[in-house]
């Protein structure tokens, strides 16, 4: 059984339950949940380019940064030249992601207690694989955007270096989707380290599934499954 494709990358039962109520919120890896990938993917890509210039003496406002960046990302997704050129769209989003999303922190958190048992070289390899998995999964779904809008609810800080921004994705004819961003201030830039979709943590969900695979089959099996899924996603995108 393709355990990884069927369970791990579909996001587990909790995410499937949260996603099942909305066409735009249906997906983590399979066709039944494609809208969920778009919602979570938009959440990720909307936060990875949090302003290119800062005043070093003043910390930026997380809500203002999220509003600005979501507007920029939606502008890209609405651009007909990008929508009709999937490879250009993917490269545009990938460039932003690689520069501003804290993939190492996300990978470390997703692996949980198993991270400490890896050598430095294995940790670096896992960060690379996790980054590719996230990029390929969400960038590949970005073109499914179909005019949804974002409502900004509230922002709050948890100390000077952490914040959360709560939003809702508004879709015609369906319930809104709650998307909350958890951010860390690093060298004057806010970087996302987790996303909650309808209250479910993306990284916690990955951690549960990764832990299950490692405990059952070992870490090498997880690496094998991730590599296989990346190849599958790349093949699908190459065929478009």
What does this protein structure show overall?
This protein has 240 residues and is an alpha+beta fold. The chain has a single domain, classed as Nuclear Transport Factor 2, Chain: A, CATH 3.10.450. Helix content is 53%, strand content 16%. The chain starts with a helix and ends with a helix. Mean pLDDT is 77; it is low at 1-34 and 49-57.
Question: Which properties best describe this structure?
Answer:
240 residues, alpha+beta, disordered N terminus, Nuclear Transport Factor 2, Chain: A
In short:
This protein is an alpha+beta fold.
Tell me the radius of gyration.
17 Å
- Which residue ranges are poorly predicted, with pLDDT under 50 across at least 5 consecutive positions? 1-34, 49-57
Count all strands and give the number: 5
Largest sheet descriptor: 5 strands, antiparallel
Instruction: Please tell me the CATH architecture by its name.
Output: Roll
- Fourth CATH level, the homologous superfamily: Tgt2/MlaC
* Strand numbers in spatial order across the main sheet: 1-2-3-4-5
What fraction of the residues are assigned to beta strands by DSSP?
Answer: 15-25%
Query: What do the pLDDT scores average to?
Result: 77
Query: Can you identify the CATH class?
Result: Alpha Beta
The helix-and-strand class reads alpha+beta
* Number of helices in the DSSP assignment: 10
- Residues in helices, as a percent range: 40-55%
| Total number of domains | 1
- Element order, helices and strands? HHHHHHHHEEEEEHH
Global outline:
globular
């Amino acid at each position: 059984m393709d355990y990884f494709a069927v369970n791990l990358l579909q996001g587990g039962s909790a995410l499937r339950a949260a996603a099942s109520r909305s066409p735009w919120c249906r997906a983590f890896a399979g066709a039944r949940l494609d809208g969920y990938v778009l919602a979570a993917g938009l959440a990720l890509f909307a936060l990875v380019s949090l302003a290119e210039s800062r005043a070093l003496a003043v910390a930026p406002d997380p809500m203002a940064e999220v509003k600005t960046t979501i507007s920029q990302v939606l502008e890209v997704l609405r651009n007909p030249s990008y929508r009709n050129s999937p490879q250009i769209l993917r490269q545009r989003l990938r460039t932003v992601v690689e520069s501003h999303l804290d993939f190492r922190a996300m990978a470390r958190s997703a692996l949980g207690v198993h991270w400490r048992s890896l050598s430095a070289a294995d940790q670096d390899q896992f960060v690379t694989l996790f980054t590719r998995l996230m990029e390929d999964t969400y960038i590949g779904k970005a073109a499914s955007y179909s005019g949804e809008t974002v409502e900004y609810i509230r922002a709050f800080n948890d100390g000077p270096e952490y914040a959360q921004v709560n939003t809702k994705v508004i879709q015609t004819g369906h319930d809104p989707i709650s998307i909350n961003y958890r951010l860390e201030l690093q060298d004057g830039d806010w970087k996302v380290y987790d996303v909650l979709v309808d209250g479910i943590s993306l990284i916690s969900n990955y951690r549960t599934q990764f832990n299950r695979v490692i405990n059952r089959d070992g870490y090498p099996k997880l690496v094998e499954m991730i590599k296989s899924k990346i190849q599958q996603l790349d093949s699908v995108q190459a065929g478009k």
